[in-house]
């Protein structure tokens, strides 16, 4: 829908694309349509098909699936699996590598049923398997995989029950590996495999001494809490040999950490892992599989650098580096090339999900009631600050800044001592704000901004209140300062005219987004459009498919959002393949051990006693009880009626 009435001829969708960086972080999946909507593009039968996200939103609303909602695009998920597998296949064939790639998806990265089903279903053509870090995840893997050439890799601490399940998977023909986290685990595996008469497939997780850049640099290297020390690794070999089971040791596992932004770290990690691999071969282990764990990064910033939220390499380069590093180490020793496994989670699922929410309200820091002239009888301080407003300009802004704050504080002080009225205080604060606003407009023209004024634009920026909970839907933004790209879904043919930070619905001061990626780095605010009366303004937070969906919590009892899975067709139409209604208030209350029926009954008693005491009529009681019932069964987020 092009709204010609306010199309700005000096602003184009290309300007918006550059401003929001969508052509870099969008990785070809996201862009802006000619009419100014955010759109998703997928390849179907070698043809690009684009769909406006606003059209999908309209379809969601028609189905009573309101904001906030997670939108997943099936085709994007499929495409990620395809490019990952094909990039390895291509590096293998051009690099003359003598074995295959077998990806496994680490379930912890997105356990949602439909995501896992899709990976199992679409991934089968590439024998894409699963990595499970707990019994629950192994149960998911076992129930979803049909293809017995797909691997199951079991990490994490495993009890006898976990091990039995894995051994049964072996019996049913699945290549299911136990990756040892400790020596004590090995004893149970040996014992259970004897009892069940199933030979286990065993892997060992090494501790890499390579330090990686990025957020998880603390967790890499010797201090990693995971993995066997080199001495423990030798212990495993000796124990397996003693049990006459050294032939079961077939895999080396090396996970450098997640979101490894620097290709040099990847290369060094693989080189070290190959030394370990060769060492285990020399010890007489059968080997055959090299699992390089996760770490393949996502360029959330689109910056192509080795900064934490970016990456300085492409997928193809990642694969080629791995192939080359393995050949470089193993070929001189005449060791057969192993099956390469990667547990790429983030890179597989990040792109396919986005969080959509509407903006409920804006708090601007504009003065609300700036007087044109002061009342004649007002106090001296007000007169002084008003004079400052009348003279502030390029030549004296520094002085005016100091004076404005001085007089404002003086008036606050007078108020606190009973010598100024509430109205006078309001006026002084508004005048001060107006002075700061004028100074902020001067700053961009300065060659050098005084340090004390650097934060001024951000202090004066708007706050856009979004209908979502950061804690539920974007937990990594809160927990580890993760950056996600954010862009309006529409009006992108218009120049955004506001600078804003975003606050969520929780009344928590951490429930805000005030760190955004820009073309030149990060900023505390992002450009947004003014709200228009009677019209929704919808923002998308992109690349949220990894880790966000289950790490979220119930802060302020905002529950799971609505979720829709859309499959795009070749003709540009799309199907709502799945839809899930988010938690109702009753749902979230049961999580914290309330019983909705009991709540309703308790409230009925409250209402009944109000009838008895004459506060409300019986008819009003019915109306109130219905409102209570409707709320209990409604969405935990802000609803339009
Ligand atoms: C978390 C994790 C992964 C996934 O890492 P990504 O960086 O998301 O690909 C893979 N393997 C192990 C052992 C993990 O703990």
List keywords for this structure.
641 residues; alpha/beta; TIM Barrel; Methane Monooxygenase Hydroxylase, Chain G, domain 1; 8-stranded parallel β-barrel; binds pyridoxal-5'-phosphate
**What small molecules are bound in this structure?**
pyridoxal-5'-phosphate
The CATH class designation of the domain at 73-350 is Alpha Beta
Work out the helix count.
22
Percentage beta strand: 15-25%
- Calculate the mean pLDDT score and round it: 94
Tally the beta strands. Answer: 23
Low-confidence runs of at least 5 consecutive residues: none
Structural class: alpha/beta
Distance between the termini: 24 Å
Please, what is the CATH homologous superfamily of the domain at 73-350?
Answer: Alanine racemase
CATH architecture name of the domain at 73-350: Alpha-Beta Barrel
Oligomerization state of this entry? single chain
- CATH-defined topology of the domain at 73-350: TIM Barrel
Largest sheet: 10 strands, mixed
Helix content: 25-40%
